[in-house]
Amino acid sequence: MKEACGVFGVYAPGRAVAQLTFDGIYALQHRGQESAGMAVSDGETITVVKDMGLVTAVFDERTLSSLPGHLAIGHTRYSTHGSSDWAAAQPVYRPVGRSGFALGHNGNLTNTTELAERAGMLPGMVGTDSDAVAELVAREYPLDSPDPDAVAVDDLRDALRVVLPGVKGAFSFVLLDANHLYGVRDPQGFRPLCLGRLGPVDRPEGWVLASESPALDVIGAAFVRELEPGELVVIDETGVHSEQLYPPEQVEPHLCIFEFVYFARPDSKLYGREVHGTRRRMGELLAEQAPVDADLVMGVPDSGVPAAEGYARQSGIPYGQGLVKNRYIGRTFIDPDQQARMNAVRRKLNPLRDNIAGKRLIVVDDSIVRGTTTQAIVGMLRDSGAAEVHLRISSPPFQWPCFYGIDTPNRDELLAATKSLPEIERFLGVDSLAYITIENLKAAIDTPGAGFCDACLTGRYPVPVPVFINRTSGPEEAPHGAPPVVALQAALPGV
Ligand code: AMP
């Protein structure tokens, strides 16, 4: 399991934009740990630095101080499909027009093959879906311009206006050319993107774009607002210019509900709500929905902790810590082999035996995907002498793969897609298991009228998805009669 990417952009003449971008993408590290990169413009030249690894491994002070400029974009990447190599690291750069342009992408497109064909790319040339978009945008630049300065002014915006309406699926893009910073969200707004301001309201000193609001906080920028689905903002010395790229009937907000469940940082603001509070409320509603008598409520660190606090508060059962997490280990790839996954979980989590032994535990976590981690955790709690283990999950059963920016296994590897509740209880070794209902999940988020993508939980895909290819059982029709838009699309890399 891997997760979505993080994007960041800053326009701030007179400030150390490379350092600000470093701080911004460091705050978005949880959204992607495979590669990190930034593109910095000094008004003439765009310099791109990117490499495999964590933000702190890719950038040091020397590198950052060698990147002067007044605007920059940054990216942390986790691939949703396909290879994870240097060539796929972002930002993507294209040397067109006066300065070229660079692009960073969070999301996953559903018509990459079609886009690549339209861009005249041969199958071997398509690295990622972001490459296909960059290629299409580059092709919209005029070959010759009588006035080189005029080219720099509008070419990228004009190209985006032409290309983006044909791009399907999930995208929050940040882009730059020599003197402009751009941010844009797909018309469903699957992935988040927000705008921040440096300096006072009446005298802004700069503007910031970020996947999540904590990236604004860490550089001292004020949160201004979330970008609207389908909105393009262009930021330059004259300020922030906004336009809606799509007709109203095509704008259908579907923010990924899993951002609230798991992906986003708890201190992020999405749909005007601080995520931590929504997770605590999920736990409260779960306690009402699925009560059980027990001695201690504990959360699986870190993602299960806020909901566990809520469960404890609502049930009146004491909250306590049952597992200690090694804070130096990031998200780990869990091997499907039983011994290997026990080792991986042991490396990351260690039980507090005195808190656990002889106790009836309520264990709260945000989600079960394959069930491999969860099974290993339950085993560890049993080994530490837990009398009973009652598992409570603050998301409904995860049953459908995501095609919009989250790397998920094939459907036949999703525990809840292949097993009944009693079978899952047996597989995990728990005394009882309950998932929050989709109604309670939405009630906890409490944004009446706001649209969500909950395809992973319901199978309702708001944008048609391709035929997906199950490794073990072969091709499977897309659910709910969604037309197979691009056969084999699922085999193409995404970001
Ligand atoms: P498992 O028991 O192996 O299915 O792992 C479930 C745990 O992995 C959840 O409790 C989350 O903390 C975490 N998780 C959920 N979705 C993802 C994802 N897309 N990528 C990485 N970790 C995830």
State the fourth-level CATH superfamily of the largest domain.
Aminohydrolase, N-terminal nucleophile (Ntn) domain
* Coarse morphology: elongated
Neighbour order of strands in the largest sheet:
3-2-4-1-10-9-11
Name the bound molecules: adenosine monophosphate
CATH topology of the largest domain: Glutamine Phosphoribosylpyrophosphate, subunit 1, domain 1
Number of domains: 2
How many strand units?
Answer: 25
Molecular structure report:
The strands form 7 sheets. A 7-stranded antiparallel β-sheet has the order 3-2-4-1-10-9-11. The protein has a 6-stranded antiparallel β-sheet with strand order 5-6-7-8-12-13, covered by helices on one side. It is built from 17 helices and 25 strands. The chain is α+β, with helices and mostly antiparallel strands and 495 residues long. β12 and β13 (239-244) form a beta hairpin. Residues 469-475 and 477-495 have low confidence and may be disordered. Bound molecules: adenosine monophosphate. Adenosine monophosphate (AMP) is lined by residues 1-3, 262, 303, 331, 334, 365-374, 406. Residues 1-3, 262, 303, 331, 334, 365-374, 406 line the site of adenosine monophosphate (AMP).
